[in-house]
Amino acid sequence: MIDDIEKNYAEVRKERGLDNEVAELDEAMFENSVNYLHIQKSEEAWDYSVYDKESLKLVDGGRIENPKLNIGQIKEQITSAYEVKLPYGEPLPNSDKNRLLDDITEKAALQMTQEYQDLPDPKITISDMCSYGYTDSNMLPIPRETALKLFDADAAIYMLHYDDTEAMVTDVSEIKNFDGIFGIDKEDWQLVKDNYLKNAEMSIEDDYDMIDGIVNNGDNRSVAELESDVKAGKSISVLDLANAINRESEKEKPVKQAKSTKRDKAAKSEKSSLLAKLNRPLPPQQDKDKPKNKEMEM
Questions:
Q1: Per-residue pLDDT tens for 22-47?
Q2: For residue 146, which of 63, 114, 116, 142 is within the disulfide window of CB 3.0 to 4.6 Å?
Q3: Taking the model in full, what pTM does it have?
Q4: Distances from the Cα of 62 to the Cαs of 11, 42, 89, 262, in angstroms?
């Protein structure tokens, strides 16, 4: 009902020529047939982001350093920059804007989680590799340190060149001397992924009962708790939010939880059995000077 009131109010305002109220806005969300456009004003410029309506993924964005322009002029300037000009309508009601921004934030966090899980080393991303000049979608980027470790694990490592070519590493000296990005084929990564991540995590994990592919995940706050911190004005890590979403999504898989519980019970039972054997009292030691039988006594 509130949404209907806001939409009707926007229509009435347009009919009466009250566009000056729109011009005075410092933030707004617009839409056309394919995109959402979010514009907000900072102290010295206007920042804008364009999202695909279907996937809510960020498809474009930028900054217009002219704070003297109003939000309507900024919207028209953004629209005119595209070859295919699809006009944006009136600002969406605040309730719709806030809901969309929440959905966009959640999807971005989930996407980041997936990207982190798929990458051998999150220090370097697919975007970094493409910006460097290498764009083969079958290759995952890795920094020098990770390349050395994977090469020691007998994985096929490539030196990636900014002209979109690559060369396979044949000697460790090539990794040490190459001044660029390295890569590993996606199929090769899947073959070595489990063992590599487990060994890497066990070597630096500060939460030894959490060997789960997420290094040092001692912060186990829920999504609700993290959101509460944000509302209270506290800063949080985007990675912590992504990990929290990932943990809660995993909890929704009862079959996997059941299997894990059985393994845990079996492990505890085996451990208890072993401890029982270790704690069992030793048999009494025989006196070496005492004869063992009558024949020896004679």
A1: 778 999 999 999 999 999 998 889 99
A2: 142
A3: 0.43
A4: 29, 13, 20, 52
